[in-house]
Write a structure and sequence with these properties.
246 residues
Length: 246
């Protein structure tokens, strides 16, 4: 294995395997966050919105996994001075973030497995639909990881980091129409919902499984917004993250 591979593996061990092995109780929140909203929406709609709720659970899980990176990196940076050690070592910022981000993804596996089972039972996605949904989720994860990493390099306290993480997760994955169609929002406020990239992610996900119908032009716009948002967050991370100023 290349040195970068070992560095990524070390990040996974630090940020996922240790906690999952020694503190399994803290995984409860990872599972409950997407599933609790799914249950509420499903019961409130008498099962009508179960498809949207399942796909919303996927989007919330992936976005929150990326934002959890902000909290963890802030903790390691400020309390354990881990970033100081990494900066002074041969490990690159990319390998460090990749390992930590992969750890967050592994940490979210229990919730994702449950959602995959629910999707197989209730949505029956085709192979093409599953690939499209996977692409949407990966873009959401990339956007939230780069955003979380950037904010972690600015955060000076774990409490501050928690506040930012919860605020951004609410703005991007709870308030927008992720668990339900955007048509449930009165028209004047739909324009506000479209300010969030997760709205486009939800529309693509819902269209891939036939829940809603999108025109070709609308689908192209939605994909373009997702790709552009991920690229912008990545660019901001590369330009503005305080990697060495710790």
């Amino acid at each position: 294995m290349r040195p970068s591979g070992w560095q990524i593996l070390a990040g996974v061990m630090v940020n996922a395997i240790y906690a999952m092995k020694n503190l399994p109780i803290i995984m409860v929140n990872t599972v409950l966050a997407p599933l609790s909203l799914l249950i509420v929406i499903t019961f409130a709609s008498r099962g009508v919105l179960i498809g949207e709720a399942i796909e919303g659970g996927f989007i919330l899980s992936m976005f929150q996994a990326g934002m959890s990176l902000q909290r963890d990196l802030t903790h390691y940076k400020n309390d354990f001075k881990l970033q100081d050690l990494v900066v002074s070592s041969p490990t690159s910022a990319g390998a460090y973030v990749a390992g930590m981000a992969l750890g967050e993804l592994i940490y979210s596996l229990p919730a994702l497995v449950v959602l995959v089972i629910l999707a197989a039972v209730y949505l029956h996605p085709s192979a093409i639909a599953a690939l499209q949904l996977l692409g949407v989720l990966l873009l959401m994860f990339l956007a939230s990881v780069t955003l979380g990493f950037t904010l972690s390099t600015f955060a000076s306290d774990i409490i501050q980091s928690w506040a930012f993480s919860n605020l951004i997760s609410t703005l991007f994955s709870t308030l927008p129409p992720v668990y339900y169609p955007i048509t449930y929002i009165p028209l004047p406020y739909q324009y506000l919902a479209y300010l969030s990239p997760t709205t486009y992610a939800a529309e693509i996900a819902q269209s891939t499984t036939g829940i809603i119908s999108l025109s070709t032009s609308t689908a192209v716009i939605a994909w373009s917004v997702l790709v552009a948002a991920s690229f912008v967050f990545l660019l901001i991370s590369m330009k503005k993250a305080r990697w060495r100023e710790v």
